[in-house]
Design brief:
The protein is α+β, with helices and mostly antiparallel strands and 287 residues long. It has two domains: 199 residues, no CATH class; 73 residues, no CATH class. The protein is 34% helix and 26% strand. It has ten helices and 15 strands. The chain is elongated and about 80 Å long.
Length: 287
């Protein structure tokens, strides 16, 4: 069985009790570079002739210069003006400013807009990463829950897919929207599944969900509308208690695992290797 893992603090109890996994909008992630591409324009001349930039100049002409003609009329005059090489050169000189204005969204706006529509389920391919225990398990007081990756819930949409770790940021080229759908599709895939190599230790897997999906449960959590994926109990295959897990949390986990639906779930504890900076795992009899 191929197992994937969720590192948790005490909120892991809610996953076990409610049989729900949180699907998180990207603007709630701890990596500030999530869903924020590097914006470029590979062909300035093509871009200034694009429909988007033409419409921006049209609205500018209407609001600041009192132009009262139609957009088609303005477009003809605009393109005629751009036919003069000198004029194109003048416009492209300030292209950084023009791009900032005419791109549909800034980096933050793009991130926030995506986060209104989509969420991500994040898992890990390993349970023995010390940094992950420290970052996500309440300083090794928490637990790690293992899931059967072949479960039907992880096959929805494009399924649970591994993250690719890279040195450079994902690039978004403003020219792609003017006739490069295949490059846009590639970009959309990369912006979801590419992360900085600094995060490689997480061995992350992701599943992408529209927040309107009928498979998601919506409910308030800490004054924010949150989204959860309902779990069949058989999708849970293991629970690993942290090396500093409190007796109280230990007892609560054992009590939950007494339910008949968890009869096949393996319970163990992470312990410190005697010599190396390595975690080992000791089975616990809990029934």
């Amino acid at each position: 069985m191929d197992t994937v893992y969720k590192y948790c603090g005490e909120y892991g109890l809610a996953i076990l009790s409610n049989l729900e996994l949180k699907v998180t909008p990207p603007n709630q992630f701890n990596d500030p570079f999530e869903f924020t591409p590097k914006m470029v324009c590979s062909d300035m001349v093509r871009y200034v002739k694009s429909e988007r930039v033409c419409k921006w100049w049209y609205e500018t002409a209407r609001s600041e210069k009192g132009f009262s003609g139609s957009f088609p009329e303005f477009k003809v005059k605009y393109l005629e003006r751009l036919g003069v090489e000198k004029n194109i050169s003048q416009i492209t000189q300030g292209m950084d400013q023009v791009m900032q204005i005419t791109l549909p969204l800034s980096e933050k706006e793009f991130l926030d807009e995506v986060s209104k529509r989509f969420g991500v389920l994040c898992m890990s391919g390993r349970r023995d990463e010390i940094l992950m225990w420290g970052h996500y398990c309440d300083k090794p007081l928490g637990l790690v829950i293992g899931f059967d990756k072949s479960s039907a819930i992880f096959q929805q949409g494009k399924g649970l897919r591994p993250v690719t770790y890279v040195q450079n940021r994902v690039v978004y080229d403003a020219c792609w929207e003017e006739g490069a759908p295949e490059l846009l599709k590639k970009y959309e895939d990369q912006i979801i599944y590419y992360k900085s190599i600094a995060w490689k230790y997480e061995d992350e897997l992701r599943q992408f969900f529209p927040l309107t999906s009928s498979s998601l449960i919506k409910k308030p959590l800490k004054k924010t509308l949150s989204y959860f994926l309902s779990l069949p109990p058989e999708a849970i295959v293991s629970v690993t208690l942290g090396p500093r897990c409190s007796p109280e949390l230990d007892n609560k986990v054992r009590k939950i695992l007494q339910k008949p639906c968890f009869s096949l779930v393996k319970l163990d504890r992470a312990v410190l290797h005697k010599d190396d900076f390595v975690l080992e795992f000791e089975a616990i009899l809990h029934r």
